[in-house]
């Protein structure tokens, strides 16, 4: 088997047999001897001063072994740090594991009960006597900007603005002065979040005698989390293990360093018992990171022929009550991706992050991109209407072509990190979408009494990210190969991808490779799974480790076979002296011979090159019922150039899953707060997810036309392209379907009530 | 007996499809559950002199697939597939749905539309409550604390009766944001006695007498009558707003669904 022959093949997912047979092991399947259960008292007020918190009655509930609050923390409570896009101005708004003095959102942890079972712990919560003196709740962006006095999240800071900066490129004044047409609109991307079927959970085991903290149920960024937990509990990194198990969906929200990890660890430290916490669904809606919730005032300047001259605007993100580990990713990416895959010679944008009395915001699949794509792509359709142009032609005219690559986007991030689009021919890929969805065919006549239309949206998408990734490959005497990376599996198929790359690099049958991911015990260091990075970064690291391992093995093989390394052929785990097939040695035998040095065992770190950018486009066909406002998405197309395609079936699965998730977000899922900052959507009765009956026919095409020059395989990410333009494409389709009334489609989610109201108002306007 | 001794602290469990979620949310915390699932006499569908009798423990799915229902209660047969999803219909019971009395549920509206009689058994014996008096508000019925619903009697359905059933929910299988059950006894082309029952738009299913009067003595396709009827729906209903739909939207939906239901009855859908 030649190297490179496995790349591009749809190998079946290794994880599926285990997961579909019910043989997966999720965190709630893990039970340890002597294990206790933790329940958390969470604030039911959005904003207030804690005036009294009496735990004495709860302590007396039979079965309860411990109760603690912020007051009981042995030293200063640790501050949960920012991992990504940290800005100085955000530091005063960082969260601690338990509320101290004040509560700032519904769901904020206030006290912890540890008991023999979860039921008892929950019953005991009702005996905690918490008194809160209400402070004025801040629930909108405008309230955040206007806040003074008691409405300030941290009065000493004097403002609820946690970040504010300007980005741009080109001469924006000149662009607007030269324009034939300018349009100004306000858009909004609503607050929603990832809803993995498996909620979060952890078991902490603090063995004080051995000086060891073990956290089960870790994921995503285990090495960062290990270092922070070590710091918080005065341990060295090597005294803390983070163990991953199977995961029922991550989507960006799972595995961040949340308060609950600290609370479980502290509960275990105090009681000397393993302590389990499994989030229930109501907790999930209030405690797990929310996301999106960005609005944007946007202005565009163009010539009559559709040439875009410039865009300017302001992006305002509602960050919730605290800045968590994802720092300023959501607002920063919403700003950065606003000009998108188009030329846009002049661009100016102010980015604002505002704190409010809601659940803190973090990253969720496509953070900032979903928002930016929706704002820009809706604006382009409005511009096309204004100019009387075909929306496809308008896009074609402004998309960046192959001759313009690499394209320097200018300073669009607060830390002035340069971002360059690496490769691609955006109009050519867009053309493929238009052909797939038959955009240029004459409009079909439908006789079902509904209003039909198609909508388009384009995007580009960065991938990779996170400075480095580690991979370790070891060869057992049995011949079995074990590969580990810092990236972890969240069900997205990383195990399959890593095995495929490793098998390819060692030119071996994939069955001989075992993948063991992400527990911090397996590698000296690593980064994790986010930003569509695992195949790109961990995959490249595996390729590199395999090359190093073969290099080392070749030297050893030469020595044992009495031949120069260059005289050796290698394939299928065997070195042979060229032309003499009887002089050969197997990798496994070499590893056995080297057993006193630990066998063949290589850990390698792949350092980040610049990011690769995929480009893609979506099309949606929707039908609107003019009597009820009902929105049905009938057909959906995605074409994305993901660089070199490792495993087409995996990419297709990621894309289709992304589209379905995006449809749910665009049409159903919304986290709603009332004026008092109460979260009204705390169960599946109110927070709606798409079910199988809501899923249209989806065609996902991944092209491998423009490999990234920045990593050895030419991969670009493929984990987010399915979701990032759904709101944009569906919004454009709805707007086109309902005619002039569609101009008002500027906010997600798209609710049938809104559509019907717009249609009625348009009818009245005409009469 | 058990119900009586528990003094209101016991709950009957039928299919568990509404009660179990309430227990999960800690919205109900009974100390005792009384399981009716093994009482065979409480389930089944049979003919009586007056019409059909359905046992309270009859599963929704069995009603959906019953030949007797299909033949003798076509409105119900047509509407039942709108209830939830197959696994829920396979567990849930008609008695559970009626006792739970969710204002957006289909069975209560259907019972009101077909003039069903609820048969209740308690320590004082049996009594019969007509559907019009049985539903008393949000999750409230005429059932007293130690009583159970044992049967539902459905009067005879005339062969020439025409019907329409329409509801709207954002996802398939969800409780309706609004719905209309309609039937009409025709006098040639002219609508004679008829029923208009709306659900999802009040704290219980409501019969819209005012709309019935407008529709009567016109053909089902009479455009002027339909305009008046739509306006009357708008006037008569005072739904609440909630997260899923505003009062105004529910009114708009009810008017549209009325038109569709009447047109379906008239063979115009
Ligand atoms: C996801 C989901 C979607 C749903 N969608 C719909 C829908 O679209 N339309 C719809 O109509 N329903 C819907 N339901 C509700 C479902 O139809 C329930 O099955 C039904 O409402 C209750 O029936 P049950 O037999 O499960 O009753 P249970 O849940 O067992 O009981 C419900 C209540 O009735 C009482 N009770 C039960 N039987 C009796 C009796 N014989 N006498 C006195 N009291 C009794 C119980 O004590 C309890 O208070 C949905 C449910 C779910 C989970």
TrEMBL record, chain A:
Residues 21-136 form the Aldehyde oxidase/xanthine dehydrogenase a/b hammerhead domain. GO terms for molecular function: iron ion binding; oxidoreductase activity. The keyword Disulfide bond does not apply. This is Carbon-monoxide dehydrogenase large subunit. PANTHER family: ALDEHYDE OXIDASE 1-RELATED, XANTHINE DEHYDROGENASE. Keywords: Molybdenum, Oxidoreductase. It comes from the Bacteria. The lineage of its organism: Bacteria, Pseudomonadati, Pseudomonadota, Alphaproteobacteria, Rhodobacterales.
Automatic annotation (TrEMBL), chain B:
Pfam families: CO_deh_flav_C (PF03450), FAD_binding_5 (PF00941). This is Carbon-monoxide dehydrogenase medium subunit. SUPFAM superfamilies: CO dehydrogenase flavoprotein C-terminal domain-like, FAD-binding/transporter-associated domain-like. It comes from Pontivivens marinum. PANTHER family: XANTHINE DEHYDROGENASE SUBUNIT C-RELATED. InterPro entries: CO_DH_flav_C, CO_DH_flav_C_dom_sf, Diverse_Substr_Oxidored, FAD-bd_PCMH, FAD-bd_PCMH-like_sf, FAD-bd_PCMH_sub1, FAD-bd_PCMH_sub2, Mopterin_DH_FAD-bd. It comes from the Bacteria. One of its GO terms (molecular function) is oxidoreductase activity. The keyword Flavoprotein applies. Signal peptide: none annotated. The keyword Flavoprotein applies. Keywords: FAD, Flavoprotein, Oxidoreductase. Residues 1-159 form the FAD-binding PCMH-type domain.
């Amino acid at each position: 088997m030649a190297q490179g022959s496995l790349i591009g093949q749809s190998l079946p997912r290794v994880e599926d047999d285990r997961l579909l047979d019910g043989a997966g092991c999720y965190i709630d399947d893990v039970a340890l001897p002597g294990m206790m259960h933790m329940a958390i008292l969470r604030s039911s007020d959005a904003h207030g001063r804690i005036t009294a918190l009496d735990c004495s009655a709860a302590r007396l509930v039979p079965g309860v072994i411990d109760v603690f609050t912020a007051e009981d923390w042995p030293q200063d409570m640790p501050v949960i740090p920012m991992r990504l896009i940290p800005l100085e101005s955000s530091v005063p708004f960082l969260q601690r594991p338990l509320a101290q003095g004040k509560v700032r959102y519904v769901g904020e942890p206030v006290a912890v009960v540890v008991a023999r079972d979860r039921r008892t712990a929950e019953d005991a919560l009702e005996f905690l006597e918490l008194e809160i003196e209400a402070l004025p709740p801040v629930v909108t962006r405008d309230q955040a900007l206007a806040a003074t006095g008691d409405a300030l999240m941290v009065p000493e800071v004097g403002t609820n603005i946690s970040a504010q900066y300007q980005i741009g490129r080109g001469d924006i004044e000149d662009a607007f002065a030269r324009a034939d047409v300018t349009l100004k609109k306000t858009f909004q991307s609503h607050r929603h979040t990832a809803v993995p079927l498996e909620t979060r959970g952890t078991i902490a085991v603090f063995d004080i005698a051995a000086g060891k903290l073990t956290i089960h149920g870790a994921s995503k960024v285990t090495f960062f989390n290990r270092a922070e937990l070590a710091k918080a509990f005065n341990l060295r990194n090597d005294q803390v293990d983070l163990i991953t198990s199977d995961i029922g969906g991550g989507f960006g929200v799972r595995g961040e360093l949340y308060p609950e990890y600290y609370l479980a660890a502290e509960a275990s430290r105090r009681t000397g018992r393993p302590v389990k916490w499994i989030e229930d669904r109501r907790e999930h809606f209030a405690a797990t990171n929310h996301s999106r919730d960005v609005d944007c005032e946007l202005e565009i300047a163009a010539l009559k022929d559709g040439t875009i001259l410039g865009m300017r605007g302001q992006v305002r993100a509602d960050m919730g009550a605290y800045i968590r580990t994802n720092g300023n990713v959501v607002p920063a990416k919403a700003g950065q991706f606003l000009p998108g895959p188009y030329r846009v010679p002049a661009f100016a944008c102010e980015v604002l992050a505002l704190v409010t009395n809601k659940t803190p915001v973090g990253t969720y699949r496509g953070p900032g991109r979903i928002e930016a794509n929706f704002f820009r792509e809706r604006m382009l359709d409005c511009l096309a209407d204004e100019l009387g142009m075909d929306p496809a032609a308008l896009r074609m005219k402004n998309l960046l072509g192959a001759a313009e690559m690499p394209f320097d986007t200018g300073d669009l991030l607060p830390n002035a990190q340069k971002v360059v689009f690496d490769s691609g021919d955006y109009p050519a890929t867009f053309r493929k979408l238009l052909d797939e969805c038959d955009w240029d065919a004459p409009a079909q006549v439908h006789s079902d009494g509904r209003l039909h239309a198609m909508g388009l949206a384009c995007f580009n998408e960065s991938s990779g990210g996170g400075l480095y990734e580690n991979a370790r490959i070891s060869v057992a005497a049995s011949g079995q190969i074990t590969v580990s990376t810092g990236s972890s599996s969240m069900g997205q198929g990383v195990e399959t991808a890593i095995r495929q790359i490793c098998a390819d690099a060692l030119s071996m049958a994939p069955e001989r490779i075992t993948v063991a991911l992400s527990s911090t015990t397996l590698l000296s260091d690593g980064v994790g799974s986010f930003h569509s990075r695992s195949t790109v970064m961990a995959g490249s690291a595996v390729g590199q480790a395999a090359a190093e391992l073969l290099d080392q093995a070749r030297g050893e093989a030469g020595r044992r076979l009495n031949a120069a390394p260059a005289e050796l052929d290698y394939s299928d785990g065997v070195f042979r002296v060229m032309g003499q097939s009887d002089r050969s040695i197997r990798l496994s035998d070499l590893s056995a011979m080297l057993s006193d040095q630990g066998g063949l065992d290589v850990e390698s770190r792949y350092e980040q090159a610049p990011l690769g950018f995929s480009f893609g486009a979506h099309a949606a066909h929707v039908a609107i019922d003019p009597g009820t406002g009902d929105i049905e998405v009938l057909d959906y197309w995605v074409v994305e150039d993901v660089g070199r395609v490792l495993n087409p079936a995996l990419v297709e699965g990621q894309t289709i899953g992304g589209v379905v998730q995006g449809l749910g977000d665009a049409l159903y899922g919304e986290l709603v707060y009332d004026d008092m900052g109460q979260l009204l959507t705390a169960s599946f009765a109110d927070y709606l997810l798409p079910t199988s009956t809501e899923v249209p026919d989806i065609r996902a095409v991944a092209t491998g036309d423009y490999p990234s020059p920045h990593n050895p395989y030419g991969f670009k990410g493929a984990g987010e392209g399915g979701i990032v333009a759904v709101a944009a494409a569906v919004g454009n389709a709805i707007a086109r379907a309902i005619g002039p009334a569609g101009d008002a489609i500027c906010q997600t989610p798209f609710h049938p009530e809104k559509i019907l109201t717009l249609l009625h108002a348009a009818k009245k306007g005409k009469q | 007996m058990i119900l009586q001794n528990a003094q209101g602290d016991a709950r009957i469990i039928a299919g568990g499809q509404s009660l179990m979620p309430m227990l999960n949310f800690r919205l109900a915390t009974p100390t005792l559950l009384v399981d009716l699932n093994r009482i065979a006499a409480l389930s089944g569908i049979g003919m009586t002199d007056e019409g059909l009798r359905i046992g309270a423990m009859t599963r929704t799915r069995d009603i959906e697939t019953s030949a007797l229902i299909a033949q003798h209660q076509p409105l119900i047969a047509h509407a039942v597939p709108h209830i939830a999803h197959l696994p829920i219909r396979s567990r849930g019971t008609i008695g559970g749905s009626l006792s739970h009395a969710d204002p957006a549920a289909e069975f209560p509206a259907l019972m009101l539309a077909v003039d069903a009689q609820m048969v209740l058994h308690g320590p004082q014996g049996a009594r019969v409550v007509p559907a019009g008096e049985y539903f008393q508000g949000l999750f409230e019925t005429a059932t007293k604390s130690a009583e159970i619903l044992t049967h539902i009697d459905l009067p005879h359905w005339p062969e020439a009766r025409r019907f329409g059933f329409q509801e709207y929910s954002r996802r398939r299988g969800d409780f309706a944001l609004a719905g209309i059950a309609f039937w009409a006894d025709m006098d040639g082309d002219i609508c004679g006695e008829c029923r208009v029952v709306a659900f999802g738009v009040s704290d219980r299913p409501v019969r819209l007498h005012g709309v019935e009067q407008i529709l009567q003595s016109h053909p089902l396709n009479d455009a002027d009558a339909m305009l008046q009827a739509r306006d009357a729906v708008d006037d008569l209903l005072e739904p609440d707003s909630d997260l899923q739909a505003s009062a105004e939207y529910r009114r708009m939906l009810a008017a549209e669904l009325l038109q569709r239901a009447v047109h379906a009855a008239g063979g115009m859908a």
